[in-house]
């Protein structure tokens, strides 16, 4: 057991917000050496850690005081571990991708949490040994004062690794591939569900289903109270929950069109958050979830990731994937258009679109092939990655762009 436990003794986390700090506490609680990277202009929880002489206070589902290394030098962060987990919001991923593209990452495994089709942007820009995406954050968490408060921990996460035809030579050996999976499983305390297809992960992210209808339909309350209400128990009324369930049905229809069986929203919540009983429908969950009603957790403004992340990087690619299959997805489209009016921002123009990934004119079958191929039970075959043109640029440093939205 000791050998397995030590197979991944170090992990670097990029992003020091609530999820990054919760992840750091989780890893440190299991004896791993954690380096938490934050840009000088976006310090997140690093200030509270450094003021506490390098100790991170955690409460809730992960409780204790943990020693965490911190840095604002990406070179130092990358050197700390061959395993890098990014926890930045999706609207910061392109900036992180630009920074990482300056380094030789052929010996590094990059895990994007949450992925939101990150690979669409990364597929030709970085030379990491492996790129993996998870469907959702492992934690329901907030930073309160000098403590990261972990309200709840997911039981399972879906995860995907880049398609075989872009995989490094070193991963040709099936045993080496199994070894990589085993090491990744050492990083997460949740059970990992391995997916063959990126669409499984991207469509299994329930955040857009949960956040977008409630944020948009509570716009007046958000602006009037600055978020001073319980987002789930109060904001997800029966009417809002009906829109949520309709949105979810459209997500499931898109999934089915690509041959995928995605878990419905209420079933997902029962699997991950049931409180000694099963929720009968989505409103029953929203009003009855102990985890989600421990704090109010409402957006304080509409300039918030519940729209600017979950619409741009969730609903927009979902809608486009549906169009490839002849699906109108009227609820998804209506929410995107409503968010555009509310935010004064063209989500179709700036979202993570298939066009931006060079797949705008691709057929449904070509999209499916580019993102991992049809899901089946056959073993993957692996081909080598072409020689990287990037070269060794570990000495380069670049500034992080200023984030455009609130946390």
Automatic annotation (TrEMBL):
Residue span, Glycerol-3-phosphate dehydrogenase NAD-dependent N-terminal domain: 11-112
GO term, biological process aspect, one: glycerol-3-phosphate catabolic process
Superkingdom, taxonomy of origin: Eukaryota
Domain Opine dehydrogenase: 194-341
Keywords: Oxidoreductase
InterPro entries cross-referenced by the UniProt entry: 6-PGluconate_DH-like_C_sf, 6PGD_dom2, G3P_DH_NAD-dep_N, NAD(P)-bd_dom_sf, Opine/Lysopine_DH, Opine_DH
Catalytic reaction(s) noted: sn-glycerol 3-phosphate + NAD(+) = dihydroxyacetone phosphate + NADH + H(+)
Pfam families given in the database record: NAD_Gly3P_dh_N, Octopine_DH
Segments of this protein annotated with the region Disordered: 372-392
GO molecular function: glycerol-3-phosphate dehydrogenase (NAD+) activity; NAD binding
Identification of the protein by name: Opine dehydrogenase domain-containing protein
Organism of origin: Penicillium desertorum
Lineage: Eukaryota, Fungi, Dikarya, Ascomycota, Pezizomycotina
């Amino acid at each position: 057991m000791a050998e397995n436990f030590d197979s991944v003794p170090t992990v670097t986390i990029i992003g020091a917000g609530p999820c990054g700090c919760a992840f750091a506490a989780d890893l440190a609680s299991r004896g791993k050496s954690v380096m938490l990277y934050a840009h000088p202009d976006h310090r997140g929880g690093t200030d509270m850690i450094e003021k506490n002489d390098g100790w991170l206070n955690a409460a809730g589902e992960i409780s204790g005081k943990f020693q965490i290394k911190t840095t604002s030098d990406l070179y130092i962060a990358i050197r700390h571990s061959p395993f890098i987990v990014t926890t930045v919001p999706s609207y910061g991923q392109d900036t992180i991708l630009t920074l990482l593209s300056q380094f030789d990452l052929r010996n590094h495994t990059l895990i994007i949490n949450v992925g939101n089709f990150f690979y669409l942007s990364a597929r030709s820009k970085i030379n990491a040994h492996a790129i993996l995406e998870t469907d959702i954050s492992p934690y329901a968490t907030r930073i309160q004062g000098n403590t990261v408060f972990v309200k709840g921990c997911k039981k399972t996460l879906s995860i995907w690794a880049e398609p075989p035809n872009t995989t490094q030579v070193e991963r040709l050996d099936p045993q080496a591939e199994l070894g990589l999976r085993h090491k990744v499983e050492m990083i997460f305390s949740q059970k990992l569900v391995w997916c063959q297809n990126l669409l499984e992960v991207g469509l299994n992210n329930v955040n857009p289903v949960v956040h977008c209808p409630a944020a948009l339909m509570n716009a007046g309350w958000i602006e009037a109270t600055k978020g001073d209400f319980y987002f789930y128990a109060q904001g997800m009324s029966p009417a809002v929950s009906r829109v949520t369930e309709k949105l979810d049905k459209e997500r499931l229809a898109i999934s089915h069109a690509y041959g995928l069986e995605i878990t419905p929203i209420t079933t997902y919540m029962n699997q991950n958050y049931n409180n000694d009983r099963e929720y009968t429908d989505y409103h029953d969950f929203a009003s009855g979830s102990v985890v989600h009603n421990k704090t109010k957790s409402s957006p304080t403004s509409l300039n918030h990731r519940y729209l600017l992340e979950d619409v741009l990087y969730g609903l927009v690619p979902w809608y486009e994937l549906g169009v490839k299959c002849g699906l109108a997805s009227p609820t998804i489209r209506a929410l995107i258009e409503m968010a555009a009016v509310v935010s004064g921002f063209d989500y179709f123009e700036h979202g993570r679109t298939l066009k931006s990934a060079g797949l705008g004119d691709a057929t449904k079958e070509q999209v499916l092939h580019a993102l991992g191929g049809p899901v089946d039970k056959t073993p993957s075959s692996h081909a080598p990655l072409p020689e990287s043109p990037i070269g060794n640029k570990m000495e380069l440093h670049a500034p992080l762009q200023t984030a455009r939205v609130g946390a």
